[in-house]
Amino acid sequence: MSFNLTAALPVATLALLVACGKTEPTVVADGVISGNDPATSIYINALENPGRTDADRARDVGRRPAEVLEFLGIVPGMDVLDMFSGGGYYTEMLSHVAGSTGSVIAHSNQAYAQFVGEEATNRFANGRLANVRVLMAENDALDLPDAAFDAVMMILAYHDIYYVDPDNGWPKIDGPALIAELYDALRPGGMLGVVDHYAAAGSSPETGNTLHRIDPQIVIDELESAGFVLEAQSDVLRNPADDHSRNMSAPEIRGKTDRFVLRFRKPNQTSR
Questions:
Q1: In this structure, are residues 211 and 246 in contact, taking their beta carbons and an 8 Å threshold?
Q2: Residue 271, domain member (yes or no)
Q3: pTM of the shown model
Q4: What share of the chain has pLDDT > 70, as a percent?
């Protein structure tokens, strides 16, 4: 089954989107655009964009998106896939950082769309994020072109590979097939960023289904087996007070969980 872009946004094929007007990302050092005021950070500029909603700004303290995007190396001119983008909180930040020379694909499915309700509809209405297109594709129905993206983001979503709820539109995902699809969709040297809730060390993947958490070692093992290289880890979202045995959606800890941030790289030369 091939994906299609939602009718709510300007119609364009993904192949056209990633092929036209492609430029190399702007070179940055420590998040500062070369040649600009050294005190001006592309990530802080995205955070302070006046078009962002108050609801998004309220989440910033717990999510620290400027630090996360800087660590992952998202820069202007990149073509980025925001996998399982939910309500689009990160999609909007990615849109501002990628800029007019870059593009963002916000992936979603019917289960996510129903869960977030009008948040995503309002965010993408009337083409307010001009460099963003929405990709609706159900689990195991992704059909991405090869070498289409400079970066893929999986924010609080990797554990959903192990989530199963067919009665509510979430059948079991073929994890290896999904990871292979993302690997092939990245250009050589492309980046895969993963942010997720810590499960206790040594936990089985089933915590993705029961607690909506995952042991980062599972993520590392699976992605390295698929050909990715773990490049770096960040502690920017650590919370040592979090109880890894509790469901991440418990009201008293929601938005305050202990989270890992991993940056993987697709090698420039691959043999997979």
A1: yes
A2: no
A3: 0.85
A4: 84
